[in-house]
Structure formats: structure tokens, C-alpha cells
Amino acid sequence: MTERYNRQMLLPEIGKEGQDKLRHARVLIVGVGGLGSPIALYLAGAGIGTLGLIDNDNVSESNLQRQILYTEREVGKPKVICAKQRLNALNSEITIHAYNERFTPENAKQLVDLYDIIVDGCDNFGTRYLINDVCIELGKVYVYGAIREFDGQVSVFNHQGGRNYRDLFPDEKEMLALPSPSKGVLGIIPGIIGCMEANEIIKIICGYGEILSGKLWTIDLKTLHTNTILF
User: Does the predicted model carry a pTM greater than 0.85?
Assistant: First the structure.
């Protein structure tokens, strides 16, 4: 462990104690696409002891521009199976559970109850409201990220009983009625937002820094303008 994680253990904010916390942590990633790819890779690299991956989609050629977990040879195969193989190849010391299914009201509580932190790699409002409500009920932290075209945003919900997704977006009916956004996206933006989500997870587990609880961080890649909005 000392050799593999030496560079981050040299940081006083992490050290051996923080690395032990990472090793015992359990994180569920809902969606292993554009956002889920960097989240999963960096959490596996950091030594998160148990990762859960839930997604029922297959790899497609159009994914490869931004979903860096996958290769051309895996087109047509289940994402979670390919992701598990890739992450095990990166770090054989961690445990990875692959759920080749949708995150639904029928399985949400059972899955969320198994993990400490739930991280958002999905792409729709309905799933986010479901994650949020189950996390509140079970007392779990929800790390949120969303992307569109050249823009992205990150926040942390229900951290130590703090603000949640409904505080930021209170009108569920209005959100669900919004027209579907353009599918156009710069491949780099999910990488940036996914890394920011992974960063918040590591901070929460190790107990350092300022958590984005009650705050929404945004970035516009065309201008590199960033904002942190309190809510």
C-alpha cells in the first residue's frame, strides 16, 4: 500500500489515516458514462476500498469520444462489465460490484443502503430526484454533477444533514417537463466535472478542505469562467 499510494499519503491532509479511510470507504456510482468514467478511474486509483457501478447501457461507438473507460473492442458489451474489468486492471486490491440494471424506485433503497456515498454519473432529472430522496431517507451523502455542451456544475447534498437537491431545484414537475437538452457535448467537460466529483468524495472521506455543501460550483469551458453559488 505504501508504494502504490505514496504520493497522496505524503499529503498531510491524507497520510496513512486518510488512506485507511479511503480503503474502508464504499462508494456507489450511478451511471458509468461520461461522468462515471473519470469518477470511477480516479476513485479506483485513489484506493477506494469498495466501488459499486450501476448502469444498464451497452458501449456504443458514439460513447468513445468522452467515455474514457471503454475501447473500440468493447462496443456492444455491457458498460458495467467492461468498467469492472478496466478498473480491476488498474487496481486489483479494491472490490468492485457491477449492477447491470437501471437505478429505479424498486432497487434504490437496497443499493444505497450498502454504500456510504452516492455519486451522480447519470443524465436525467428523474434519477437525480430519486437518488436525493433515498439518500435523505437513509442518511447518505449525494455528490452531484451535471454537464451540457461546454458547461458543468458540481455540488454535495445531504452532507451532515445539509442542503439537498430539492433545495436547489425545488419544483420537480417543472424540471421533468423541461425539453430534452442538446446531446452535443465537448468530451473534455465530463472529464473535468467527473474529476471534481471525485475530488469532493475524497475530501469528504478524509475530512479535509471545504465541502461543496450548500454551494453550486459551475464552469464554462468557452470562457473558463467559474462561479460558486450559495443556496
Answer: yes
